[in-house]
Amino acid sequence: MNPKWWKESVVYQIYPISFMDSNGDGYGDLRGIRSKLDYLQELGVDVIWVCPIYKSPNHDNGYDISDYCDIMKEFGTMDDFDRLLSDMHSRGMKLMMDLVLNHTSHQHPWFIESRSSKDNPKRDYYIWKKAKNGGPPNNWESYFSGSVWELDPQTDEYYLHLYSKYQPDLNWENPVVIDKLHEMVEWWLKKGVDGFRFDAIAHIVKAEGYPDALNPSGAKTVRAYEMFSNLEDVHTLLQNLHDKVLYYYDIMTVGETSGLGPEQALNYVGDGRRELNMTFQFEHMNLDAASPASGRWDTVPWSLHELKQIMGNWQTVLHNRGWNANYLCNHDQPRSVSRFGDDLFYRIPSAKMLATFYHMLEGTPYIYQGEEIGMTNVAFESIDDYRDVETMNYYEEKRSSGVPEEQIMAAIHKKSRDNARTPMQWDDGDEGGFTTGTPWIEVNSNYMEINAASAVKDPDSIYHYYKQLIQLRKKHQVIVYGEYGLLLEDHPEIYAYTRTLEDQQLLVILNFYAREPVFELPSELAGGKPQLLISNYPLSKEDDLGSLKLRPFEARVYLRQ
Ligand code: TEU
Ligand code: CA
Where is the Glycosyl hydrolase family 13 catalytic domain (predicted)? Predict the structure, then answer.
């Protein structure tokens, strides 16, 4: 089972701008994070992943870095960072940085030089091309709408940006760029950080020659994911980074890799690949998209059957060969309880059920800030209240192509990244206790009911349930290392599985809906004295595991040994 600390850990993701504001300017900051370490330690998480905190003009909340070795002024100073790191270490917690290596900000000094003239020595730090037939060099579409190419008047050439035009892609074909990036990664490691989440790492290599993607509909731009996702050379570059830099440190690494299944993921995380410890996969994030290629905005109902297939496949293929990173939410996704649970009538039980689900799978669980108190999606009436560059670009694009306002806002309410980016709700005071000033984005109006202070006080809260799940992980190796086995494959409402490690077996029973199906224990699991480890409902004495009527969104975990 090859034990590792990062397999046994629980990660908590912080989106700093929305976590805690210490000085009333409306932006979360590093001191704010420090002031909440007690809360996080009490919850029991071991690793904190902090989204980018580097110097940035903030067009994409820090995912547009203008200096890799400095701190965003809104977030504080390098001194604040050093103090945060040492405070965390003295509590036995680890800090994972979020590193954007695919692109920088357009205000990074490298790009400012690069764009200044065609013969600037840093010209080849980025990807510059001449016009083709009087237009962009190819038809690839940006993740954030429009072409990936931006014409720069200074030299009359185009530069490539997979994300916004303020995020030019670095040229990984240039060995000088690679050296500089390695140096910078090493610089952070020497400071003592405990790991990295590598942003958009699947995209650092683009198809040779930048060919047009197939375009049967004749649209101006097409989603050409296959042209810049998970290409073979990404692995060479990652092995290089690993062998030259990462290998020398006891750290944890996770790559953000959309567009692959578990077999392909083994190329990143397979034992012996010398690349990454784990990757974030997106297959279950596409469950409610019409197709993976249709992008994030159009939504269809997701199916439990498909969820079982996808998660089961990842569990099975990676077992003993790699490692999973399990999550239901992050800063790019809607809130998990609103998306996969029921945030209206069954918010508390469904949030607990979902927590049970991803904490009891094989892999490292990632909690996104606020998920542990069941924070929900938000529905601002006006586009003016949204801040996310992806959301705003989408709105503009749809408006200008004549889509009715209502229809656009409906999609935004469901899927906008800002759903997960409203400020952390700490208490029922002004602005949910996030700031004494005006928050950079409005607080969700349900903060009076949903907030950390009241969750900490209430022993039956989602927060305490998370705490229990985390404690169980520390106690039972089978939760970390047990092999997954699906039960009741075709059941339309119940997701049940076992996890087995030698003579220990977990039995996880999850009702994904508000209806009340009966769980019939498969005969091969009968016998023995299963011990209940956790449940999101009070138990009654008569509960008979042989045939169990489940309550709405009920979750139970038993241990048999
Ligand atoms: O997101 C990248 C990201 O989600 C894509 O790589 C993904 O493949 C695609 O959207 C699938 O639908 C990261 C950050 O998490 C995000 O916040 C940033 O905006 C983005 O990179 C750019 O840095
Ligand atoms: Ca602040």
Answer: 13-421
Tens of pLDDT, residues 99-136: 999 999 999 999 999 999 999 999 999 999 999 999 99
Tokens of 65: 């870095």
Residue 16 pLDDT greater than 80, yes or no = yes
Distance CA 293, CA 290 (A): 8
Strand-by-strand arrangement of the 325-326 sheet? 278-280, 252-256, 195-199, 94-100, 47-50, 11-14, 364-368, 325-326
State whether the beta carbon of 199 lies less than 6 angstroms from ligand 1. yes
How many other CB atoms are there within 10 angstroms of residue 273's CB atom?
Answer: 16
Q: Which CATH superfamily is domain 7-103+175-467 in?
A: Glycosidases (3.20.20.80)
Which fold does the domain 109-160 belong to in CATH?
Answer: Oligo-1,6-glucosidase; domain 2 (3.90.400)
Q: What is the pLDDT of residues 420-433, one digit of tens each?
A: 999 999 999 999 99
CATH code reported for the domain at 482-560: 2.60.40.1180
Kindly report, residue by residue over 67-85, the tens digit of the pLDDT: 999 999 999 999 999 999 9
The amino acid present at 343, given as its one-letter code, is D
Evaluate if residue 513 carries a pLDDT over 70: yes
Q: For position 44, what pLDDT does the model report? A: 98
Tell me the two tokens of residue 474: 């520390």
Q: How far is it, in rounded angstroms, from Cα 162 to Cα 164?
A: 7
| Ligand 2 mean position, distance from CA 10 (Å) | 27
pLDDT greater than 70 at residue 542: no
Ion ligand 2, residue ranges at CB < 5 A: 21, 23, 25, 27, 29
Measured between its terminal Cα atoms, the distance across the chain in Å is 19
Q: Among all residues, which ones are annotated catalytic?
A: 199, 256
Q: Is 6 in the pocket of ligand 1 (CB under 6 A)?
A: no
Average pLDDT for the chain: 97
Return d(Cα 5, Cα 23) in angstroms, integer: 35
Question: What are phi and psi for residue 112, nearest 5 degrees?
Answer: -60, -45
CA 484 to chain centre: 23
Q: Do domains 7-103+175-467 and 482-560 have the same CATH topology?
A: no
- To test the ligand 1 pocket, which listed residue (13, 58, 63) has its Cβ within 8 A of the most ligand atoms? 63
The whole-angstrom separation of Cα 199 and Cα 213 is: 24
How many Å apart are CA 375 and CA 420, to the nearest integer?
A: 8
The pLDDT tens digits of the residues spanning 497-508 come to 999 999 999 999
- In angstroms, what is the span from residue 21 Cα to ligand 2's centroid? 4
Which residues make beta-bridge pairs with 196? 97, 253
Predicted ipTM > 0.85: yes
Q: Is the Cβ–Cβ distance between 159 and 128 less than 8 Å?
A: yes
**CA-CA distances (angstroms) from residue 307 to 95, 467, 558?**
31, 25, 22
Domain ranges of the chain: 7-103+175-467, 109-160, 482-560
Task: Look at the block and give the residue holding tokens 């595991």.
Answer: 545
In this prediction, residue 541 carries a pLDDT of: 67
